[in-house]
Write a structure and sequence with these properties.
By secondary structure, the protein is mainly α. The chain starts with a helix and ends in a 5-residue tail after the last helix. It has a single domain (2-308), classed as Na+/H+ antiporter like fold (Up-down Bundle). The longest helix has 43 residues, at 108-150. The protein has 13 helices and no strands.
Length: 313
Amino acid sequence: MLAAILGAIIPTFGFVGIGWFCRRVGVWGRDAVHVLNSYAYYIALPALIFDAVFKIDFLSTATTQDLRYLLGLLLGHVIVAAIAVIATWHAPRPIRAVAPMLLTFGSTAYLGIPFATFAFGAAGTAYAAIGSVVVVVAMLFIALTTLNAFSQRTHHTATWQQLLELPFLWVVLAGLFLPILGIKSLPDALAHPIEILAGSAGPTSLLALGAFDFDLQWKRIPWRWSLPFGIGKVILCSVATFFALKFFGVTGLPLAVGTTLAATSIAVTAFVLSEEYRTSTNVTDGAIAASSMTALLCLSLILALWVGTGVFQ
């Protein structure tokens, strides 16, 4: 059990530590965060998600359990988003603006997909890829809706327009519908570069997380808000998602992967959005840091339960 846990935790959080260390010793400057994030967001992760979705031919091979898996994953996160809205109903507007985002918008792509790959193999990657995109699109819609309603930004971009700008959305659609059009495989000249880019997604995204964590301004963080949001994101989402998946009858690998995605730390994109909307940036900073430590513990626990018990069966 210990070997299995370390085999997933050390590569995952080891890369995060390397990213932090490279910033600490000056191997990378502040610009590295932007470069790594841009490469992971626009190139490597879309390649990984497309490769996983295309190869499994999801629309043709999807079972009722796969559909229940996606529904349970969504339900768990929607329940937590509703809790966030209710719990902060009388809070200051900046807190109301970011609450649903901080409690539900996890790093399912940057952290969840690499961890699922290390912990569960190729089958875990496929479940994590399709689940990540569904959760990201749904939770980003909720996050943008509340940010537009309660933030201090004077100019608001339409939510639908921001969703259409997601590269993950388009690569999933391509991966889903190309097989329906009769394209079951790609020529080697395309397939091999995509596989190489997909292989770089995990390390690059984890390095970007570590480089981002180095720049957190610890002394400026209002911990009375950040700690509940950061810890709550990991614990509430993972518990709610686990029981939502069980409610839909999901067991085995999909249950473990879905719970893993829910237990990821808050996405770095949440900080980008809070900056863009000029609201609660320090709260978001601290919540990301708190969720990162909580995610380390929670993901270790999930893997221990997967390896050593029948909880997910």
